[in-house]
């Protein structure tokens, strides 16, 4: 498939359009001809490419950009509710972000390797194995057992490419190894998620990258359930949370859960699950809390200050470094980094005349 053909398909899928939609939407090209372009069986002339680009809302240069990332096959969670078309949108949004990220690495000359600990991916065949794997990874990354203040930063420091992308409402996150001059670990999350859910999703997807799950469906041990357990274990390690809650409790109060939500960066609901998983509270208390939360709407929107959303920084730093060293110009920098301004408003106030205009 030609570069132009791949880009036409990518742009069409990002817009959530079928071949027929694009053909009827101003491209002035039949769906059959568009299909041939996408398969590389023929190529559009410059005038036709311009019409296609205008119809899709991308500049012509987008369709000429080299393809750096091969097939992306993220595993979607059951219950995500994504249609095939929405899955295609997610894949192409992630691909676009990742290609720009990897191009920034190429320009700067720094392709960070994944800090794979010894024994990783960890073989796990039980929830106890998952708990141990979470602790082993924390030890390997020198995090200790304290609450993780900047989960995104730890992932980025250890070679995981982390991004927040625009995506359909039913999409939470995905993880995969990208085919881009070698296997590159990637986690992408929905940019519209609140901080506690974002952190949980990051930890869950990290589980997909570092666990080798030996499923036992008859015992209820699946990869998804293992990764859910890993997320709780990584963000709230057993010794630390038990020290806060106590080994056995008959009741938990919403007040203490509200405090611990800020300490661990986990939702009150997730902390209830975690306390039950560790045997701190019985099944009846878990049900009582969830019923109480449901009655006041806390299953959907919890009280108190929200957990702060974590912003990935490495991509923006790479672009700023390349710009500062004169490896790229301002326009190229803004083409690479489209997630927001290169200098935030707060940075502009602090830096004054030294801030990027």
What does this structure look like?
By secondary structure, the chain is mainly α. It has 17 helices and five strands. The strands form two sheets. The protein has a three-stranded mixed sheet. It has a two-stranded parallel sheet with strand order 1-5. β3 and β4 form a beta hairpin. α13 runs antiparallel to α14. The relative contact order is 0.10.
Give a nutshell description of this structure:
This protein has 357 residues and is mainly alpha-helical. It has 17 helices and five strands.
**What is the radius of gyration computed over CA atoms, rounded to a whole number of angstroms?**
23 Å
Q: Total number of β-strand segments?
A: 5
- First-last Cα distance: 40 Å
Tell me the overall shape. Answer: globular
Helix content: 40-55%
Going by helix content, strand content and strand pairing, the class is: mainly alpha
Secondary-structure element string: HHHHHHEHHEEEHEHHHHHHHH
Strand fraction equals: 5-15%
Task: Give the low-confidence spans.
Answer: none
Question: Taking strands numbered 1, 2, ... along the chain, how are they ordered across the largest sheet?
Answer: 2-4-3
Tally of DSSP helical segments = 17
Report the biggest beta sheet as strand number plus sense, adding barrel if it closes: 3 strands, mixed
Write down the overall mean pLDDT. Answer: 92
